[in-house]
Amino acid sequence: MRYLFEDYTFDTERRELHRGADAVSISPQVFDLLEYLIRNRQRVVSKDDLISTVWNGRIVSDAALTTRLNAARNAIADSGEKQCLIKTLPRKGFRFVGTVQESPMRVSAAVIAGSGDQTRRASSLFDARLCLAEDARRRNKRLTDAVPGDAIVRHGPDPVSPPPLSIVVLPFANLSADPEQDYFVDGLTESLTTDLSRIRGLFVIGRHTAFTLKSEAVDLKRIGRELNVRYLFGGSMQRGGNRLRVNARLTDAESGNQLWAERFDKPVADLFDMQDEIVSRLANALDSQLVEAEARLAERTLHPGAMDLHFQGMACLHKGLMDEYLTQARSFFERALALDPDSIEALVGIAIIDFNRGANFFADDRAACFAAAETALIKALSMAPRYPRALVFLGYVHIYTARTAQGIAECEQALALDRNLTMAHAGIGMAKSFLGRAEETEAHIQEALRLSPRDIFAHRWTMFAGAAKLSRGEYAEAVAWLRRSIEANRNFPLAHFHLAAALALLGSLDEARVIAKAGLTLDPHFTIRRYRANALSDNPNYLAGRERSYEGMRMAGVPEA
What is the DSSP code string of 159-214? Predict the structure, then answer.
């Protein structure tokens, strides 16, 4: 079917949108959302209707729905203010209000020859279990029509490529001798599916579809094709005596290549507490792995979209918080915003850049950096009030601008929305030191590391812990934490300066000067005066701790001004 409205042609068979003679780039999920609105233009479509059809009934945040609606409006030159074509009716839903003409497509004669249920019955090439994935396949138009004899008739071009960040969690295998351990393995699979669905922008095949693949040899490439996903995640669990081993792996569905693998080997205590820990660690590790994988794919894309550019920007941030990488990341986020002015991900990405330029002393006017970050985050949250990542960075901005209690509250709110958001735990720990309660910092950092021990930002968290120890005069412990920070990421200047201070105060002046010099190589503009001028609290305990840092840096050879 072709739908004609204003100067647009919306072709459901070819899955194309044209404005006049020009093709309009549109993602598969946004295409499906727009198609559903147009087909049901005679009525108001509720949020639940959209989630049931476009997202296959899985849990979807308000932020995800808002982002896709904004993308649909942007594709047809509408806007949230004008609402000439897609109208939002508060507390009711959405309706396509444009004038539409329909132009039927030619249908294959083979299909016309069919009758009744035969025309639409599932092909024998798809076994019964994939009927559970019907909505997911329909979302990318991978359904086939069959005629008597099960001959397949395809309409239009070949199926579209899997959407970015699409994944199925395959049932974990129970390698234990005890079949009763199946309940734990199934719980792990189900919990991981739920936790991954909270990752913004990630399309996760529902657990009911995934469980139909249990207890059989799985052809990973075939499963990837039939469910039209880009990644497959699975593994095994084995319990022996009082120990539990979980192996997990991430696979590229197209090539079958393993992208990432991890093993968890722990003593059995409370199985359900252990399940929560394993799921949290896997979800956090997988989040960063998927960003890296998507960024590599985006590099090979001739005409990258806003999300492609977002992934490339995040990949730059993952390299380290140096001014060079921050500048590269900003370029990607700004290009994403140019393509999609309502891209919440790009807005938050730019806010992260501005925050880190201020927090890491890469700018003379730190206040301007924090103000710019706050403006972008407030705008993002106005479009997606329950976006945890935006909330946690707003919390960081408030913590770094002497609104510490407010920042802690926002980090806690982010954790209520996403219990795996380790940055929120670390932010609360950092904030406690600004309140003069540095003795509480370590426990929060340990919790963040428990949930994500190899996190890409673990170097920041361990630096927070080291700085808190330094402020309390616990220099040996500070050195241990700060060495750990530098081992995790050697491109983080602040960790070098704090380590140099701690070593100097311990009496290791030669090593302290070497470390300070390495920090100055990373950030040649760092001075004690600049650091002193940007104290983040007037708490007496906090200020006394900073005096120790200043003295140690001075002894290590960090410039005064």
Answer: PPPPPTTEEEEPPPEE-SS-GGGHHHHHHHHHHHHHHHTTSTT-EE--HHHHHTTT
Residue pair 243/251 in contact (Cβ under 8 Å)? The answer is no
Q: Which residue has the tokens 């699975």?
A: 234
Domains of the chain: 2-103 (1.10.10.10), 109-153 (no CATH), 166-279 (3.40.50.10610)
Across the chain, mean pLDDT equals 80
Residue 125 CB: number of other CB atoms within 10 A? Answer: 11
In contact, 492 and 486? CB cutoff 8 Å = yes
pTM beyond 0.90:
no
Query: Rounded to whole angstroms, what are the CA distances from 468 to 412, 437, 442, 484?
Result: 21, 9, 8, 14
CB 7 within 8 A of CB 100: no
Euclidean distance between CA atoms 141 and 134, whole angstroms: 10
**Residue 115: pLDDT over 90:** no
Lowest mean pLDDT among 208-212, 260-264, 513-517, 549-553: 208-212
Q: Which residues, 6 or more positions from 446, have their beta carbon under 8 angstroms from its beta carbon?
A: none
Q: Are strands 231-240 and 243-252 parallel, antiparallel or unpaired?
A: antiparallel
- Asked whether the predicted pLDDT for residue 43 surpasses 70, the reply is yes
Residue entry with tokens 């403006």:
375
For the chain, the 3-state helix, strand and coil shares in percent, each to the nearest 5, are 55, 10, 30
Name residue, tokens 């708490």. 539
Q: What angle do CA 341, 136, 64 make, to 5 degrees?
A: 30
Element spanning 101, H or E? strand 101-103
